[in-house]
């Protein structure tokens, strides 16, 4: 079968697009999907309680492959999981209502997945908008390269952190079976980091392929949380509910996971201190302490930041920038 053509029966790919108050951008997102050369797909738009005209724009969009599903507002993880439950495809691709794929995105991702049946997922690089800023140089400096990502007990936890960050939903295609096996995206009211909670599970258990050639545009200026620099972000779910990840972590990789959690806790402790919650930062550092993390510069930075003096420095910096 030519994968560019529609096939009889279920589609090969289910594209899941959560929608919440994105009337201004959802049409461009849909056009980036429907203009792909690959045609054997369904597009599941999950209206997560939108209050604007976004759902009407979707209904009027001229493509019979689109299905619009409505639910009460429950957050991006719940919206994507509703799409996963409805999906009929062998693969899942994720499109946010304010982002776009480049031409050929699906062809590139599926060629990699179809060539190696052991792969659980493939992630391609993206450009940050506005300005089409390349993200690849930064990830290369953090040790990422093209190909299957090797996960071993001795892996530097900082590289695992980079892998999780690289697995942006808009540029990731995952086997439906793998996403369902690991419980989908984190829900429980989470509004930030629900994707990383799934990706760390996948990385610890299944082969994942990275392609460091940009294939999508991520619009930070349109993102309420990922592009936010003017308020404290919620704590990532793998820090609020780490046991959910620990339960599926292979025994040989347990220490790697704990070092990963420690590094993320140190980073979050610094952020908490900047926003005045230095005591919460101290508690988080203590909860996830791992002795190996003393070798990280982030350990010593967080030690200085998560203090009254660090909180004062953060307050003064916010005043300088006009942030309350």
Name of the CATH first level of the largest domain: Alpha Beta
For the secondary structure, the number of strands is: 10
Mean pLDDT: 94
Beta-strand content: 15-25%
**In total, how many domains does the architecture comprise?**
2
Say which CATH homologous superfamily of the largest domain is assigned: Spore Coat Polysaccharide Biosynthesis Protein SpsA, Chain A
Low-pLDDT windows of residues: none
CATH topology group of the largest domain: Spore Coat Polysaccharide Biosynthesis Protein SpsA, Chain A
Structure, explained:
The protein is α/β, with parallel strands linked by helices and 324 residues long. It has 2 domains: 13-222, Spore Coat Polysaccharide Biosynthesis Protein SpsA, Chain A; 262-321. The chain contains 14 helices and 10 strands. The protein has helices at residues 26-34, 54-60, 76-86, 105-115, 136-141, 157-166, 176-181, 194-205, 237-240, 242-246, 254-274, 278-287, 297-305, 308-321; strands spanning 13-19, 41-48, 66-71, 91-94, 100-101, 121-129, 133-134, 147-148, 172-175, 208-219. Strands 1, 2, 3, 4, 5, 6, 7, 8, 9 and 10 form a 10-stranded mixed β-sheet that branches. A hairpin with a 3-residue loop joins strand 6 and strand 7 (133-134). The longest helix is centred in the last third of the chain and has 21 residues, at 254-274. The mean pLDDT is 94.
Which helices and strands, and how do they pair?
Elements: E1 13-19, H1 26-34, E2 41-48, H2 54-60, E3 66-71, H3 76-86, E4 91-94, E5 100-101, H4 105-115, E6 121-129, E7 133-134, H5 136-141, E8 147-148, H6 157-166, E9 172-175, H7 176-181, H8 194-205, E10 208-219, H9 237-240, H10 242-246, H11 254-274, H12 278-287, H13 297-305, H14 308-321
Parallel strand pairs: 1-2, 1-4, 2-3, 6-10
Antiparallel strand pairs: 4-9, 5-10, 6-7, 6-9, 8-10
Helix pairs in contact: 6-8, 6-11, 11-12, 11-13
């Amino acid at each position: 079968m030519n994968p560019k053509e529609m096939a009889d029966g279920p589609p090969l790919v289910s594209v899941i697009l959560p929608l919440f108050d994105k009337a201004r951008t959802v049409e461009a997102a849909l056009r980036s999907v429907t203009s792909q050369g690959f045609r054997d797909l369904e597009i599941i738009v999950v209206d997560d309680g939108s209050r604007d005209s976004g759902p009407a724009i979707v209904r009027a969009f001229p493509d019979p492959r689109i299905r619009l599903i409505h639910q009460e507002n429950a957050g991006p993880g719940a919206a994507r999981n509703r799409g996963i439950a409805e999906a009929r495809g062998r693969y899942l691709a994720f499109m946010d209502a304010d982002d776009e794929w480049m031409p050929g995105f699906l062809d590139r991702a599926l060629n990699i997945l179809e060539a190696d049946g052991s792969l659980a997922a493939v992630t391609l690089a993206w450009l940050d908008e506005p300005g089409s800023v390349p993200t690849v140089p930064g990830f290369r400096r953090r040790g990422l390269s093209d190909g299957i990502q090797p996960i071993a007990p001795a892996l530097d936890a900082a590289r695992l952190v980079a892998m999780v960050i690289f697995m942006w939903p808009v540029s990731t295609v995952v086997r439906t079976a793998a996403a369902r096996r690991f419980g989908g995206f984190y829900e429980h009211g989470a509004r930030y980091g629900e994707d990383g909670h799934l990706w760390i599970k996948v990385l610890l258990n299944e082969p994942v392929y990275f392609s460091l050639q940009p294939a999508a545009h991520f619009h930070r200026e349109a993102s309420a949380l990922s592009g936010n620099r003017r308020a404290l972000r919620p704590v990532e779910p793998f820090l609020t509910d780490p046991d959910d990840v620990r339960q599926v972590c292979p025994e040989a990789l347990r220490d790697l996971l704990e070092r990963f959690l420690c590094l993320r806790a140190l980073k979050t402790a610094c952020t908490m201190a900047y926003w005045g919650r230095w005591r919460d930062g101290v508690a988080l550092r203590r909860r996830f302490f791992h002795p190996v993390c003393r070798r990280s510069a982030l350990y010593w930075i967080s030690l200085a930041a998560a203090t009254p003096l660090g909180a004062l420095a953060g307050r003064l910096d916010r005043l300088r920038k006009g942030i309350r």
